[in-house]
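Shall we go through a protein fold together, starting from nothing but its sequence? Please make up or recall a protein chain and show it to me in full. Go ahead whenever you are ready, and we will take it from there.
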Amino acid sequence: MVREALRGLRGGAALNPEERRQRELVDALRVATGHLSQIAAKGRAAFTDRSNWSDRAAATHEVVVLAEAAKKLGEPFHKNNEGIPWEALKKLRGRIVHYLDADARPVGDEELWKFIAEDVPRIDRRLRRPVFREGDDPDLRDE
């Protein structure tokens, strides 16, 4: 799905492989934020309902996907796109995947909900107009 979306890019010069990969990763981030937004739209009560384990499992998975794609974008992209909680996302992912470690502090439902309800919408808005190179003006891009 992500690769197919890239075929729809309008105008401009052909993308080099690194640019294409960065756009694929941003698209993967946007897909994950979309899935998380669908979960958030059901509301906090539905999310924290103990019988609704599937939304919490899906949200956990999407946060890991989000963090992995963010990691692969790298520091230059992170610096060009301030306002996204890159470090908090990295730490949240670490706590999710290492929850069985002896010194782990597992991510609770409330903490995960707060990230989904508060941070994900900001991440999604920021990624609508990403800056791929230093000095780029996202408002002047032909996309």
